[in-house]
Design brief:
This protein is α/β, with parallel strands linked by helices. 39% of the residues lie in helices and 11% in strands. It binds N-carbamoyl-L-aspartate (NCD). N-carbamoyl-L-aspartate binds at residues 142-143, 214, 220, 223, 253-254, 307, 309, 347-348.
């Protein structure tokens, strides 16, 4: 099938790679646009029009419009022309069941939102009339705020419910709470819960989309997606990168989701932690395990630090915080062993002087910790966008 962009590219006599450079995107996105699954945004259209103008080729904005399909334009994101959505999941419960295509699809859309969020024109009306409920059974500041902002930027009504003010305290079960909210016709429930598996259970009882905002030590899919977006914007791609996940991997849902995602996208993972903080059987996930920071960090492209998750520890896992910092805290001495352009990442909240030295955390040449927070809003916009618009379809 010849779609408008394909015809345009043939007129311009350029390759997909050249068009990707011109449109400031990836070749994968160009393929998707040429397959009719995605639309270029206004600045990309403008770039192509300028190029055609400079080559003396007659093109207008109308040449970008599909005429032979019934399409529903989705405000600069994707177009479903075949009846098949590129993302076939009703919920986002984890990374484990996502394919590389699913991940690329979310990341590409997130990247569009990340660019849009940097302009003054960042408030959209795509989800006007939709209701997003943040249901948090565990404390959170950044993740809850990030989802709230994401929903509001898309025009949705967003409501926050935290356990402290909920009926759970009055004896209602998690499921009853979710079913009650579902009966109020929520379009998406964003749920954080201290127990692994609780979000999945809840998703089976409601007919709106459910996004897992962290369940116990299990998964935290939007965190892994925002990490991937931050990395791929800085490094161009995830393929072939060597990524070190350092610290309390045993209790970390961030680590688990990152292992699934980064491996699916072709990165290699090292885990660096004391034996007490490494989950049993982790080698089966295909990661390399190190107990020594200097050896583990050698030649790494990405150094991702994790917090000691004391709220999930039953008993004592490290002799003392002082000793932990000495052996496992990221300082300039240890960082020397990673590649000279290695990025420093942390999902937050950080414990300065425990898993990371304050100066290293604030080193704006190396640390992308603030960019992770920025990308979090874009990724959550993409997830809300995709899921609230797929929810009425018969997809799994
Ligand atoms: C992480 C979490 O809650 O799992 N933080 C976050 O989402 N910003 C990591 C952590 O709490 O250490």
């Amino acid at each position: 099938m010849s779609t408008p962009l394909k015809i345009i590219r043939e007129k311009l006599k350029i390759t997909q790679t050249e068009l990707a450079a011109l449109m400031n995107t990836t070749q994968a996105t160009i393929s998707r646009m040429e397959a009719g699954q995605w639309e270029p945004n206004a600045s990309q259209v403008q770039a192509v029009l300028e190029k055609s103008n400079s080559l003396g080729i007659d093109l207008s904005i109308d040449d970008f419009v599909l005429t032979n399909h019934s399409t529903q334009t989705t405000n600069g994101s994707y177009k479903d022309i075949s009846g098949e959505l590129p993302f076939n999941h009703r919920h986002l419960l984890g990374i484990q069941n996502l394919s590389a295509n699913d991940i690329n699809f979310i990341l590409d859309l997130s990247n569009n939102y990340a660019e849009r969020n940097r302009t003054a024109d960042r408030k959209l009306s795509l989800l006007t009339g939709k209701t997003v409920i943040n249901l948090f059974f565990e404390e959170s500041t950044r993740t809850r705020t990030s989802f709230e902002l994401a929903g509001k930027r898309l025009g949705a009504d967003v409501i926050n419910i935290s356990v402290a003010s909920s009926s759970i305290k009055k004896g209602e079960t998690v499921i009853d709470t979710a079913v009650t909210l579902n009966a109020m016709h929520a379009d998406a429930l964003v749920v954080r819960h201290p127990h692994a598996g609780a979000v999945q259970l809840l998703s089976e009882k409601v007919n709106c989309s459910v996004i897992n905002a962290g369940d116990g030590s299990h998964e935290h899919p939007t965190q892994a997606l925002l990490d991937a977006l931050t990395i791929s914007r800085r490094k161009g791609s995830l393929q072939g990168l060597l990524v070190a996940l350092c610290g309390d991997v045993a209790h970390s849902r961030v680590a688990r989701s990152n292992i699934y995602l980064l491996q699916t996208m072709g990165a290699r993972i090292r885990i660096i932690a004391p034996p007490t903080l490494i989950p049993a059987g982790v080698e089966r996930l295909g990661v390399e395990v190190f107990h020594d920071m200097n050896a583990g960090l050698a030649d790494c492209d990405i150094v991702m630090m994790l917090r000691l998750q004391r709220e999930r520890m039953k008993g004592s896992f490290v002799p003392s915080v002082h000793e932990y910092f000495h052996f496992y805290g990221l300082d300039y001495e240890k960082l020397k062993h990673a590649k000279s352009d290695a990025l420093i990442m942390h999902p937050g909240p950080m414990n300065r002087g425990v898993e990371i030295d304050s100066e290293v955390a604030d080193d704006f040449d190396r640390s992308v910790i603030h960019e992770q927070v920025e990308m979090g809003v874009a990724v959550r916009m993409a997830c809300l966008d995709i899921l609230t618009r797929t929810k009425n379809r018969n997809v799994l």
